[in-house]
Design a protein that fits this description.
One of its GO terms (molecular function) is sequence-specific DNA binding. This protein is of the alpha/beta class and 331 residues long. Helices cover 37% and strands 27% of the residues.
């Protein structure tokens, strides 16, 4: 690979001239994360021709092949893998320089990229972004929701990730936001029709809403003191989205196994009531996760601080205007 050339600048000092630009490296990262030029163009809203040009210019400058072209897309070569692993430090250094300049000002500005699992990101990310942007009007947001499986691949680009459960990547920094647990909930209409379960065994066979992740049904595992059981309702509705599942429960069509924060407002309105409230799931922790280099970025750290301080408020925000529902009358 050619060495960068040394040139004299206007002050007679030696500076470095590189045959590639930051835009070329950024395009390479986008293509590597997306798996193909077409996917990267769609995800990052950049023309395919532009990405192809930048990638070709970078490979020509480095004199190495970064990808192997295959029928289903692009696969990193060994050289490409090494380059991807190390070139992230370039943008981290740029972020550090920007952060140092921003610390000299009383306000923070720039863009924050926040990712979350689709299960609950819809619920809290909007509330968190609205609150933070109101206090910091020069901050812009890029909010993205992914399946848990996509998050665990490690190929998602973010400044901050909201994750419920235990993250597997130990190289990332984390801060605990709070904890969540599940319980059984039903509408008064459902209980009038089917009766109030007196024992956990009475739940078996009742119509229920079953959440599935990648085709795998979520188990209704509940604990009281030292006793743990798996309730087995009839799968009246199978869904892969919690908001849809809650709709069926509020309408009185089925029993639901739902997180406590997710039904807070419905409980206050009387649209839902807890069923066998002494039976609860194991507690699961929620974290804010971010790369170590972001720890020096003031806007990201301020956002993480806000998430930690206001987590309970954000996660219980309904995200819509609530009106007391008209419950159907029994015939």
């Amino acid at each position: 690979m050619d060495r960068p050339s040394r040139i004299l600048n206007g002050q007679g000092r030696v500076s470095m001239s590189y045959p590639y630009e930051l835009g070329d490296i950024n395009a390479f990262q986008q293509i590597a994360r997306a798996g193909s030029i077409s996917n990267a163009a769609a995800i990052y809203n950049v023309p395919k021709a532009t990405l192809s040009l930048y990638l070709r210019r970078l490979e020509d400058a480095l004199k190495v092949e970064l990808f192997v072209r295959k029928a289903r897309g692009l696969e990193l070569t060994d050289a490409g893998k090494e380059f991807l692993e190390n070139c992230g430090a370039i943008f981290d250094s740029c972020e550090t320089a920007v952060s140092a300049a921003q610390r000299a000002h009383s306000t923070i500005r720039g863009r924050i990229r926040v990712a979350s699992s689709a299960e609950f990101g819809t619920l809290m990310l909007g509330a968190a972004a609205l609150h933070f942007s109101a206090e910091n009007p020069e901050i812009d947001f890029d909010l993205q929701l992914y399946s848990t499986d996509q998050i665990l691949t490690g190929q998602i680009d973010y400044d901050c990730l909201i994750f419920i459960g235990e993250p597997s990547d130990s190289s990332l920094l984390r801060r605990k936001l709070g904890s969540v647990s599940y319980g059984l909930y039903a509408s008064p209409v459902f209980l009038r029709r089917h009766g109030v379960p007196a024992r956990i065994e009475d739940v078996d066979g009742l119509s229920g809403v079953i959440y599935s992740r990648n085709g795998t049904p979520e188990k209704w595992t509940l604990r009281q003191a030292s006793r743990a059981v798996e309730a087995r309702p009839h799968a009246k509705f199978n869904v892969n989205e919690y908001w849809m599942g809650k709709t069926f429960v509020v309408q009185g069509s089925a029993l639901g196994y739902l997180p406590d924060f997710f039904v807070q407002h419905e409980l206050e309105l009387g649209a839902l009531v807890p069923v066998l409230p002494e039976w609860r799931s194991e507690t699961t922790h929620a974290y804010a996760i971010y790369p170590a280099q972001r720890h020096r970025n003031p806007r990201i750290m301020k956002f993480v601080d806000t998430l930690c301080q206001r987590f309970d408020d954000f996660i219980r925000d309904p995200g819509y205007s609530l009106i007391r529902p008209r419950l159907a009358q029994e015939a």
